[in-house]
Amino acid sequence: MKKRLNTKNNNKKKQVVEKTTNLEKENEKTSNTNSTREAFLTHPLGSLITKNALPAVASMLFMALYQVVDGILVGRRLGPEALASINVLFPILAVFIGLAVMIGIGGNARIAVLLGAGKTDKARRILGLIVTLGTILGVCGSAVVVLAFPKILYFIGTSGELGNYAGQYLKALYPFFTPMILLFILEQSVRNDGRPNMATMVMAAMAILNIVLDYIFLFPLDLGIRGAALATGLSQSIGATVFLIYFLFKTFGGHTGLSLGAPGGGFSAIGTIVTNGSSELFNNIAAGLTTFLFNRIILSHLGALGVAAFALVQYLLMFGMMILIGMSNGTQPILSYNHGAGLFYRVQGTLSRLLASSFIIGIIFFILLQWQTQTLVTLFIPEHPDALDLTVSVADTISWSMLFMPVGIVGSVFFTAMEKAIHSLVIAILRGLVFILIGLAVFPLLWGTAGIWITPVFSEAATALVTTFLIYQWMRSEHLKSSN
Question: Where in the sequence does UniProt note compositional bias of the Basic residues kind (predicted)?
């Protein structure tokens, strides 16, 4: 009898201890989640932006670094035609990249808003949902390449040596579509979890690995253009795996903050993600379409050498663009958290600081490209003087776009963070398609080949005007709301 009573008492004690332990764990989770939220909502904006934007900028710079080094190694080993082949593939890859960006940006903007409102469980389910959607997209993208490979090459209009390079590159890259998509999605999710430094370290290690593999595959192993694709695919797969392990460890270890939950929210959540990320999707699809149009027009005017020159200028602009995108993406959680909490004055302060710093970056890169283009281009193609001279001429014109680009990039990310999908989509449509089409239709007729290079400058300048108007209207509306 006494043994039974002792057993019952011991069981009760165990249950009490277990309940107490579970309660302490839940309180710890809530406390840590609230501390991240409190930091975004109360810390000084200057230090908060620096803490979040600098790691994001570093990540984007590392991405730009490996892409530029990839271009340098490909150009030096295989020549301008190989460089051009990667550029002509972009219209096809842009569709999958756009869908991945839509899921990643749209989903993570929603996650940050939910975390800002204190709804951690819902944020976890959205993370599970976007990881699932990204996996499905990657598998479908690889399947499309397998089933329609000849049609893809025919569509982009490649032939001869250019077509051969493009085909080899795509065949080597498509098996890695799924991890490449998950890398983009999960990097931003790690930042939403308040771990910007970890995200940066992973991206830095991935970039260094990519560069090392590029050299090994292109030179000692002599794998040609396939080696460049394999280096990109393998390094990004490793980066995605690290991020995935991080969230799986948090999920199954019962750790605090953002973790992978069961996919939830249904079609309404998917609709919100698609709506939030629609401008980013359109940006990428439009970029693919306009790149296709640029390539066709340039081929008709200057041949493959012109496409190579245009591709080289894109490499030169990449560092400036990546810094602007990194600053905007790094600041996005601050904007979304404070928007979710209804703190308009902090949203306004964050935006003004972001715009000011972005303009400084734009001016610096404009000056750099005006003065040092020839030195930079020589890194890519030192033994091709004709391509070198043409690239310098193209860069002299297109570099003016850096003075206007900050407004369009910041504006698009800002309105996505505010869940103002229509505003963001308008910016994307005008910047990525409408103004480009107008420029390509009019300027080459007026100024010949020079009109092609003027088009990006016109597009960025016109977009800056429209974006400024939309931001002014939004601020005026929010100011009236806060006054009432």
Answer: 1-14
